[in-house]
Amino acid sequence: MHRWNALFSTIGIVSFPIVFLAIRVGTARARGAEVPPIRYLSEQKLWILETQRTTYVMGINEQGELQHFYWGRKLARDEDLAAVHSRPEHASFDSPETMTSLEYPGWGGRQYNEPCLKVTRADGVRDLVLKYASHEIRGATLDVYVKDIMVDVFVKLSYRVFPHSDLIRKEAEIQNRTQQAVTVESAQSGVWHMPSGDGYRLSYLTGRWAGETQLVREPIHQGKKVLESRRGNTSHQLNPWFAIDEQGQADEEHGRVWFGALAWSGNWKLTVEQTPARQVRVVGGYNDFDFAYLLKPGEALTTPAFDAGFTDGGFGAASRLLHRFERQEILPERSRGRLRPVLYNSWEATTFNVTEEGQKALADKAAKIGIELFVMDDGWFGERQDDRAGLGDWYVNPKKFPRGLKPLIEHVNRLGMDFGLWVEPEMVNPHSALYRQHPDWVMNFPGRPRSEARHQLVLNMAREDVKEHIFSVLDRLLAENEIRFLKWDMNRHFSEPGWPELPADEQKKIWVKYVRNVYEVIDRLRAKYPALEIESCSGGGGRVDLGILQRVEQVWTSDNTEAFDRLRIQEGFTFAYAPKVMMDWVTDVPNLNGRSTPLKFRFLVALQGSLGIGSNLHHWSPADFELATEMIAYYKRIRRTVQEGKLYRLLSPREASITANQYVSEDGKQSVLFAFLHSQQFLYPAPTLYLRGLDDKAVYRVKALDDRLLEKQETLSGSYLMNHGLNISLRGDFDATSVLLEKVDQAMPAGTSAPGLDAVARHSGNRPGTLECPGREFGTHCALAGELEGRAVGNGVGEAGGH
Ligand code: GLA
Question: What pLDDT score does 43 carry?
Fold first, then answer.
């Protein structure tokens, strides 16, 4: 018996114990006991998928189709749920298939909505009607098999519940169990249905190079809105994330929001559709543009995972659920809970002009300000003098590093920092030894032009030999050098994506195989070098998605490091992705847009994610070094809260001239507020900042970074901070501040004071509640700042490991 058929017949038996399960659940609920996250009600033919705060229900209708029923806030009683029934035809033009919210519609019969699966069989038949075959529940995972009504095209629909993050994952495996080839022309991971109705609004992330992750909002009307990439990787232009709310009813703190993200770093597509039956649905998976995936008999194709969730706590809660999910379920296991180091990157300082001596000189200065990871960027390999040559030749340039990389790495290590290196493995310059030797290794259509971008071509990573070559080159580099970190770049998109070595009907597999092979190389390197950490970069934030995040520690957010633009880019980024993975550098001015912002402003912007420095340290004044040292020490004190905590976006740079963000640590003991003024106008005061996520009854020690905080109380209660709020005075252009709140151990009755803190304030000669030293903004010599330095060490990366 074929292995799938064997599995199918075993699965048939599972429904028997499930009947008992349903009965047990009712009683368990009544007793307040824990119930399984996935249950099947055999009488109603319904599956109930539960997270901590949400319920998802679907069932088998009278036609044998899988039909969606409910996705929203947790329902209290299984007894309320009735069997699902398909909706009748509205007219001969509005078929039941179109009217009914199907879980995974094939393109067949009278299906006119965006389908989840479209195939052409070897005999030319293109009709596919999927009905329930069997299912299996294993803890938090449900596999439902659906099958075509006539032939053995099966789809295994996998659902996985993540109870703590309120997320559910959908994934599909298309199995060709027929005796003939089947070409898959559209393979989607699944569809998410909103409750029936009108008036929904879509939020999504768009942009371009140096302007990524800009939040856009628009009403959803009848028809389709397609978000996609046709570029071979995730793209700067659109990101595979969506959020849907009922127009005007959700904001940062309130309202129902359905949101999701696709885990794929290649051509992806999200189709947001409002059907004529007033149903809003989001279909997501591989982009079907130029897609054809031939499945020989016995072969299967798996779609990317499509993770989605629901909250009634607004966009802020939606982001926090995603952040937590990414930190706890998506990021590589060994990185979960580990804090990101403060890094230095040489790119903006030295571009391609890297040498052993030059990098050592930068490293000396970087070590002094508290850098923990020193990364040498582009320019160290092959004949790389600029972007015209060298990609593909991953040997150390003998003129720039006559003794190899070892002396530099040892120097960096002696200074107490880890060493990281930039690579762009998927690319080749025509001006390289690799290209001269293997011109056939790039993706191409024979006899057609090969379009260059940044003077480079894309290696066809889908090919086994190319993939193995890239693995062995990187393997050698890592084996021979103490490299703890790779910045893995990809500086152009696909063009002429031909794979001439394959038969014509298989060449389009390149879109899928390429990405899978990139994933495979990274996974193998990580397995072989367990200490290796990776940053995903594609000319900035061109490869940021849940697929790559399963195999890297962080992403390069944008090549645009101009601090004011960054507020927008970073805000959009946090709608979908955790601050921990968001690399933010402090760089020199004037920057992009010709704008110059003060160093303090640049630091505070960068402190809101994973901190890096990209400045030319040779250009810094002693005052710059002093400020940087203090800011980095401050960051080390707050970084667990920023990286692992909860983010509250208080004021948006899209809407106000003041941006404010607040982070609260997971244990609730620390909170940090950042506020930025863009440009003061008409002497208007800054709005009151109402803090969030604090303990109403707790008392917090208030430490202002400078004199911008108008509240001078040394301690304040959560109730005051959240209801009265804090007032700040920011002046001029690009002024910024930060306030640190630390929970005082014992909640104190109103009217009492904290003697310990008074003492510290007297000792430092400061006003209570400020870190400021007389005549200076933020001084190392004052007692509080000294204390701050001391604590910073204790909150460092090393200590964080294993949490
Ligand atoms: C890309 C990256 C930059 C830098 C350069 C090097 O543009 O985004 O950070 O690494 O490549 O060429």
Answer: 97
Phi and psi angles of residue 447, each rounded to the nearest 5 degrees, phi first: 80, -5
Q: What is the pLDDT of residues 640-689, one digit of tens each?
A: 999 999 999 999 999 989 999 999 999 999 999 999 999 999 999 999 99
* Residue among 346, 348, 372 nearest 357 (CA): 346
Return the ligand 1 atom nearest residue 487 CA: 10
Task: Read off the pLDDT band of 799 (50, 70, 90).
Answer: very low
b/e 280-293 (16+ beta carbons within 10 angstroms → b): bbbbbbbbbeebbb
pLDDT (0 to 100) of residue 34: 76
At residue 92, what is the residue type? S
Please report the pLDDT score of residue 519 as a whole number.
99
User: 342 alpha carbon to ligand 1 midpoint, in Å?
Assistant: 19
Residue 709 · residue 737 · CB < 8 Å: yes
Closest CA to 670 of 714, 701, 707: 701
Residues flanking ligand 1, CB < 6 Å = 347, 377-378, 422, 489, 491, 537, 539-540, 556, 559
Q: Which one of 422, 485, 543 would you pick to mutate in the ligand 1 pocket, going by the greatest count of ligand atoms within 8 A of its CB?
A: 422
d(CA 237, CA 259): 19
The minimum-distance atom of ligand 1 relative to the CA of 377 is 10
Please report which confidence band the pLDDT of residue 155 belongs to, taking 50, 70 and 90 as the band edges. very high
The closest residue, in CA terms, to atom 8 on ligand 1 is 539
Classify strands 485-488 and 533-536 as parallel, antiparallel or unpaired: parallel
Parallel, antiparallel, or unpaired: how do β-strands 200-206 and 214-219 relate?
Answer: antiparallel
Q: How far is the CA of 571 from the centre of ligand 1 (A)?
A: 22
User: How far apart, in whole angstroms, are the C-alpha atoms of residue 436 and residue 793?
Assistant: 51
Q: For residues 576-608, b (16+ Cβ closer than 10 Å) or e, as one string?
A: bbbbbbbbbbbbbbebbeeebbbbbbbbbbbbb
CA-based torsion, 400, 401, 405, 407: positive or negative: negative
CA distance 770 to 728: 13
What radius of gyration do the chain's Cα atoms show?
28
Catalytic positions, please? 489, 559
> Phi/psi at 320 (nearest 5 deg)?
-65, -35
- What is the CA(489)–ligand 1 centre distance, in A? 7
Coil/strand/helix, residue 246: strand
762: pLDDT strictly greater than 90: no
Q: Whose CA is nearest to atom 1 of ligand 1?
A: 539
